[in-house]
Amino acid sequence: MLKRRVIFVVVLLALGAGLFGILSHKNQEPVYQGKPASYWLMRMRAPEVLPPVDELKLDTPGLKLDTGFGLKPSSHSSSGTSLPYQLPGPNSSALEAFRAMGDASVPVLLRNLRGDDSVMSQNAAIILSEIGPIDRDVLAELVEILRATESRQHQIYRVLSAVLPTTIRSKLSSMKVPQPFYNRYADPWYMQGMRAQGVIRAMTIRSQGTLRTNAHAMKPIFETIPLLNRALGDREDKVVYLAAGALQSIGPDAQRAVPMLVKQLMNTRRAGFAREQIVQGLRQIGIFDQKVVWALVSATQTPNQDRSLQCAAVAALGKGGGACKDAVPILKEMLKSEDAVLRSLAHESLRKIEPSSIAGVKEPDPIKPSAQMVRGNVTYTIANGTDDYSLYMTYHIKD
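^ that's the sequence the OP posted. Answer follows.
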């Protein structure tokens, strides 16, 4: 009897020790110069007010990591405009710390990217965008984060607040309601997905930039396309928007996603902003077969008069050139539209598709900015982002 009890106690102690070890290892973070990864993420925010490292209350291993392995800086300048985020500087101590900590810091970065602290989340996105490993597993995790789901609490609040009287709604100081769409950018539950998409786009740009020296640089990006393809079928329109934007950055190499893009573009139950982003994706991929052309033509005839979607579809047809000749009759009808932006874009597209179709047709008046400011010899355009000029320049077909 005593022997059984001893064995039982030993087994319990072994299980407890194992569980403790697993949990302790899970919470450990890599260190650089004696400070954990979370410290260096915070350093990007406010180095002058950082707490001492012993106040962070993190369980960290006692050994510094070898600085000779891990993440490599990208080939482009961190001060360029090709990435969705700007780093604090090429000589940032935080950036140097994450280079030194290498791949061991990736779980910490991904955890913070998912986190509720918006500044830490953005900082994690910056580091991953610049020097994060372009790896299939990392990209798969980023796609999962991209598929952010609106919380039930936020969903209920949004629905209820939409039907409350203005006098009551104005007194509510709780979470932001995503109405109209641009307000969603301020919602933390959605920003996680936006940042994940930004990292995927940045990694795609980095991979494309190293193709000359590494023929297999795009392989992890290609392996991500099926995951983004599945995300296109998500019930959330915002996820479709983000997935289409990520595919857009891949460009012609994402042609495997074209059938799903077409299917979702033809889905009139999708929100206009999601379908507009799908059009932009198709335009960048550049496959203009009959199904794509038909889907784009259908989008120009959207029943709810979604102006941005119509403009995007008209411009995309022009990008297809001669492959989009079936769209000529529809585009010629648009030359009679009362919408000046649609008229101009239709004229540009017809010039690209079939120049003879606009022979003798007066060129539409140019779309001018709502205001201009002159300083010395330089004229600056002032546009508010919603006027005709802003809309036209978004989809304008550059020669």
